[in-house]
Amino acid sequence: MEPLLLHLLVLLPAIVLVRYAFTCGHRISTMPVGPPPLPFIGNIHQITKKHTQIKYVRSNFPFPLKYTTAIQLRKDGHNDGTFIDKVLDRQEKHHLSWPQLAIIGRVLMEEGSDTSSSLTPAIVQALIQNPDVQRKAYAEIDAVVGHDRSPVSEDFEKLLYINMMVKEGHRWRPILPLCFPHALGERRLGRWQIPPQGYSSRGQHLENVHGSVSTQTTLPFSSPSVLPNTPELAPDYVSGTWERRDHYGYGVGRRICPGIHLAERNRLLAVATLPLAFDFQPGEGPMDSDPMNGYHNGFLYCAKDYPCRPILRNEVIRATIEREYATATADVFSRFTEG
């Protein structure tokens, strides 16, 4: 891999968790679907077994370790002002249990990082296949940001096309094609039935954004919108009213992704910074972007490894990345490195 690209990925915090996302997806990919033949009969043993495996995966997620590290540092008189430190500062008021502390860290980081680490490789894959979209992204980034610095959050309101690319990525390869399951908190009247309390359901996100998936095909990135009479390419089309622009990438209803704010900022930084530095071209070998064969099917929906050739756009950008990497290493990363 291009060494400069490694420096850039270090500056994009959520991307380093992409391998964990792959692992989690593989370990849960055999989760049984559909209800058992009769209540509490049939697949109940398999479901219980898989539930135990899922609990094991989640309980071994590394973020609770961060609490252990933070507590030890605080005993030595160190308080770095991190999110975990701020939670611990309020312990006398909230009296949270250890599992609650662990879940808070997981919710903020795991949920936001899952979206970032899964969707960013898919968007890069789409850019390789759509050089015209890359050219539009270059023009906007060069006009708003230039080559002497990397994008910051204050730039986002001016990076309209980058925002459109992110939203199109949500539509093209949603990381949760069926969304998270929802459960009714109380008995509720539906269109044709009265589901009981605790009844679970899933949203058909993939079908909502691509139409019927019974033909095993999906619309290409930057294709004309699934809505009728819209000849524009999708990133251009979604620049209109909010009805056109919104998507269901973070779920539906009141229980949307709690990591939405972290995910949005991480992904906008990634999608704005990567095209700033590199021209992504096809690598050696075939690329399979088919949603059925080219992606890991599991709890998380991630692109399999694909050939990619990142080409540095110019030497000014090289100097910018190396300078910002050195500054981040000295001023930021060093604060959170033991030893």
SSE map:
Elements lengths: L2 H8 L7 H11 L15 H16 L3 H13 L7 H7 L1 H4 L3 H32 L1 H14 L15 H13 L9 E2 L16 E2 L3 H6 L23 H4 L4 H4 L14 H18 E5 L12 E2 L5 E2 L4 E5 L2 H17 L8
Organism: Penicillium digitatum (Green mold)
GO biological process, one term: mycotoxin biosynthetic process
GO molecular function, one term: heme binding
For the record, give the distance between the C-alpha atoms at the N and C termini, rounded to a whole number: 29 Å
Main sheet record: 2 strands, antiparallel
Q: Helix content range of the residues, please?
A: 40-55%
Count of helix runs: 14
Category by helix and strand content? mainly alpha
| % residues in beta strands | 5-15%
Anisotropy-based shape: globular
Low-confidence stretches: 13-58, 212-217, 223-233
